[in-house]
Amino acid sequence: MDFLKRCNGSTLCYFTKRCQRACFSALAYKGLLPESMMDLAYGSTSHTVRRIAPQIPSRRSCTTTLIQEQPKSKRELPQFVQQHLDRLQLEVTGALAGTANDVISFGVHRPAGAVETPSNKISFELQEMAKYYFSQGGKLYRPTVALLMAASCSHDRMLETVSENQYKIAVVSEMIHTASLVHDDVIDESDTRRNRPTVNALWGNKMAVLVGDYILAKATQLLCSIGNAQVVSIMAQIIEDLVKGEFMQMGVRDSSSEARFLHYMQKTYKKTASLFANSCKSVAVLAGCNENIQRTAFEYGKNLGMAFQLIDDLLDFVAQSATLGKPAGADLKLGLATAPVLFAAREYPELDRLILRRFSESNDVQKAWDFVLNSDGLRQTRQLARQHCEEAARLIAFLPNSAHFGEHLTDLAMSQLDREH
Q: Which molecular function GO terms apply here (predicted)?
């Protein structure tokens, strides 16, 4: 029984824990294991994660799902918010086709009798490729956050509307997000997104980079049409953070677990949470709010964005590919150590070597996958996400119009914990 020997003075080795959990799993499967000992069978994530089979998961049996609480009735969005979202996708397409102020231009059509020149032919091709992403029907989550925050920052408690400039922030937030997806797919060499081929898979990497740049250029034109220098500066910070976050993701080389986790959290803010935070701050500025309210709006968006990405990283391990719209375990295959992996490494120091070489050797991805699912990493990731959700919800009370729209912002924050994709 050499495999039962301790690897060091404090922790049992990985194979020992596998054997232990396999034995207790068999007892649990037969109904012979008391509820109080279920953690010995499935690990301390058993309260939040259900495994399909009662044995140590293999690559084929890793289709784990989050155990959901009793489903809550979904609160309908305010009518004026839904109306803005209904027209947003068409108006984004119009913005891509027309000038910065031509947000009400529907669709992209070649003018009747237009003379085709090399210049406008390229323009039409770029527009069609840009439209490809927007036609896939995303969740429009970022615009929803911006519109609800705009309403919550209104000083007119009886007015259920947002200004045209605040609406433009919602449109720009979705355009920046989509451009970042196009660029991410090139960097990650992704072939699918939302269960459809990516732009780079259809038209190649060079064209995809140009499409992403084109969307950003149109977003910038629309942003400048607001005519508020402070807002332009705030929203420009998002693009700077996206670039810096990508560099951070590619360049992590920290050897200590604490430094790696700090690096991960900073990268997560720049790549994901900055867009939420700065969009919320922008609509607060446009509402004429003071600096304290602007900071509150920023912090709400930041915490919401951090929770959003933490749940995304958790779902990479527990959701099925068809639900995610991309292959499960994609982050590990890209060499990325996300929160579940970093938490698991505290339990299994053997993971450190795999993280430092970015899971590049044969079977590294499989080993890391098993380490995570047999650790407390998923539960700790979910708990950290919960802390950010609760902090976001706490901040809502400080917004001027929270009595009317605070419940919707609270729903957006806490619903992160129930997401399946």
A: metal ion binding; prenyltransferase activity
